[in-house]
Amino acid sequence: MDHAARGATALSASKYDEAIEHYSKAIEQSPGAVDYYIKRSTAYQRSSKYPEALTDAEKAVVLAHKRARRELIKDSQLRRGIALFFLGQYANAQFVLDIVKQMDDKEKTLAIWESKIVKKLEGIPEDDERRKVTAVKVPEIEVDTTPAPKAVSESAAKAPTADSAVAPTSATSSAPKVPTEKPKHDWYQNNENVTFTLLAKNVPKEKATVEIEKDSLDITYPLANGNDFNYNLLPFYAEVDPEKSSFRITPTKIEIVLKKKQPGVKWKTLEGELRNEPKSASEVETTELVKNLVKPVETAPSYPTSSKQGAKNWDKLAADDLGEEDDYEGDETSRFFKHLYKGAGEDAQRAMMKSYQESGGTVLSTDWNSVGSKFIAPEPPEGMEAKKY
Q1: What secondary structure, in 3-state letters, does 11-76 show?
Q2: Residue 324's pLDDT is what?
Q3: Which InterPro entries does UniProt cross-reference here (predicted)?
Q4: What is the per-residue pLDDT across 36-62, written as a single tens digit (0 to 9) for each?
Q5: What's the angle, vertex CA 213, arms to CA 105 and CA 43, rounded to 5?
Q6: Predicted pLDDT of residue 82
Q7: Cis bond leading into 235, ω under 30°?
Q8: How many helices (H) and strands (E) would you count in the chain?
Q9: Looking at residue 310, what is its pLDDT?
Q10: Cβ atoms of 37 and 56 closer than 8 Å
């Protein structure tokens, strides 16, 4: 199991320090992997290391924009907005969440965070720094994407790097200090309830707030150093009934009893997956695939290829590839692409055949002007590599 997979396992098991360690090693090996920064930011946030969470989220935004991947941009901006919220930069958090809403107004967690921001802003003076927007759409930072050397000494591996340091940005320069205290927590469940315990001592009952919603929990209380401590779970593994849930604060702990909305459902973890899963091939929108269709040409010249069998006749392959749709038996994804292929122009068909075959099924282009004169290298999913056979 590689470090990214181990980090994911640790994150889902609420072992945040372990997750941070594994994702840090994964980033050393693949410093351009956006998802690793998003996941490490999540681990930092859930372990109350909010400046580090924001730094990773901002790096993810920058890298996602360089790759021009809409889903990654949205996910990294969402993680950035959450980090800003925990740093008390509520106006900046709303600014970033508005970016997420423009990209995906159906993002399931937006309403929750926007509601939390409204509550936090209640009673805050208009001229307060927390009401001022200083964030920009894309953070003005540089991210080093040079992989770390494969063999390094133990002392060198432990030495801090410029990339791992928390660099101030326009969004973090005025961030308030956050508490260093990190109480431990525990939880157990039965068929009816999930009992969560935060082992925090001497929490002032009159100044603590515990907000239980159907898919989130937010605990806030003041610390002796003047800062507020915030503990958040969002979203739950499954929904709860807030009206039938309860909490109590004792001298040694805060205990929350969450009433399961669906009794008998076994929770594997406290938190579910915050990010939307990447779209599968069957969910790719037709408009994204056909927007570059061009008019067919009468003849097609020969183009270079790296194939050992010599140059291929992409016109012939496009014409002979598939039979009639009514006679085709296969899954819905294959049927969808066949339908798209059949309705495309000759140039687009050649482009689809050439890009798909040369890339080993990892690239599908409809623009013959872009792919016709060059070899299409494989572009495997993030965290994977293409194998040569």
Answers
A1: HHCCCHHHHHHHHHHHHHHCCCCHHHHHHHHHHHHHCCCHHHHHHHHHHHHHHHHHHCCHHHHHHH
A2: 45
A3: CS_dom (IPR007052), HSP20-like_chaperone (IPR008978), SGS_dom (IPR007699), Sgt1-like (IPR044563), TPR-like_helical_dom_sf (IPR011990)
A4: 999 999 999 988 899 999 999 999 999
A5: 70
A6: 93
A7: yes
A8: 13, 7
A9: 58
A10: yes
Structure-block tokens of residue 217 = 């929990």
The label of the residue with tokens 């849930």 reads 245
Residue 317: its pLDDT value, please?
A: 55
Mean per-residue pLDDT pooled into runs of 10, the chain (389 residues): 85 88 92 92 90 95 90 93 93 94 88 88 89 94 80 50 46 43 83 93 89 87 76 84 94 94 90 50 37 40 54 56 47 62 77 79 77 75 60
CB 4 within 8 A of CB 36: yes
What contacts 254, CB < 8 A, 6 or more positions away? 197, 198, 200, 203, 208, 210, 219, 247, 248
Instruction: Pick the closest to residue 199 from 216, 211, 182 (CA basis).
Output: 182
Sign of the CA dihedral 361, 367, 370, 374?
positive
Contact between 271 and 47 under an 8 Å Cβ cutoff? The reply is no
DSSP-based three-state secondary structure for 251: coil
Q: In Å, how far are 21, 36, 67, 82, 358 from 382, measured between CA atoms?
A: 19, 10, 11, 24, 19
| pTM of full prediction above 0.70 | no
In three-state secondary structure terms, 187 is strand
Distance CA 379, CA 359 (A): 7
Q: CB–CB of 60/79 below 8 Å?
A: yes
Residues 6+ apart with CB under 8 A from 142: 62
80 vs 172: CA distance, rounded Å: 11
Q: Kindly state the tokens that stand for 103.
A: 């990209």
Of 16, 40, 15, nearest to 28 (Cα)?
Answer: 40
